[in-house]
Amino acid sequence: MKLDHTEYKQRNIKIWNEIAPRYHKRWAGVNQGPFQSTSKLVDLVNVKKDDSILDLACGTGAVTKKILNRIGNSGRVIGADASVTAINIAKKWNGKKSNLDFINIDAEKFNFNHKFDIITCQYALFFFPNAQKALKNIRNSLKKTGTLGISVHGHKDKVPFFSSILDAITKFIPDYVPPGTPNLDRFGTKKSLYDEIKNAGFSKISIKDFTFSYSPGNFEEYWKNYLKYIAKPIKEKVDALDKSQRSELKQAVKQNTIPYTKRNEVIVFPWQVLILTAKY
């Protein structure tokens, strides 16, 4: 099924406006799970005090905050996101600073007169339906000496926090993810990520592979929190299952978590993250 980009973006923005507070509380605001990589991204793009930096798809401001800690009162930082709710959280969390602005933009349509030293984009490239368009916008907004820094989740087999549930749930709810939606791990291998960035005209591409550990607690806590934190349209599909289907689904998910469950019944998932840097 062909993806309607406008409809997909509108749906995505609506979802992010709903879940941003929970997302910030559980992940971005406390450097948990994949956000253990945030400081590594900022290290790898080599932030300097006078740099002008765009944090694209900044979400609730995790990367923005790390960048600000590096540059202090010098340089310039702009956090940009499609979700107004996420931006409002980022503004509050980062506080008012003379060298910080937040703007609401579409990553595939933005245009700046100003050129940046660095553009970062953490856990968002896979959301952009036309990633090439977004990447070309990024390149056009960089100085000729500029640096791009991108973080993505690894392939689903390397991020069982997601796949333990999704592999099971899609058997019970085939349209759990709307048809045509971009896969969250479509850039989850070094080759797929490298090829996408290369095709957009970047050079000196380097990709580093990190694996972090994340424990969601025991299985009951993992399952309960998944249902608590998912977006409303998705939760409605799970709630529509009858009691026996829901019980079967839960058991299928539990089976998938067994390889990551320790003797004390606590689950510890590996979480692969790829961090790419490239030059204009």
TrEMBL record:
It holds the Pfam family Methyltransf_25. Keywords: Methyltransferase, Transferase. SUPFAM superfamilies: S-adenosyl-L-methionine-dependent methyltransferases (SSF53335). One of its GO terms (biological process) is methylation. The keyword S-adenosyl-L-methionine does not apply. GO terms for molecular function: methyltransferase activity. Residues 53-146 form the Methyltransferase domain. InterPro entries: Methyltransf_25 (IPR041698), SAM-dependent_MTases_sf (IPR029063). This is Methyltransferase type 11. It comes from Nitrosarchaeum koreense MY1. The lineage of its organism: Archaea, Nitrososphaerota, Nitrososphaeria, Nitrosopumilales, Nitrosopumilaceae.
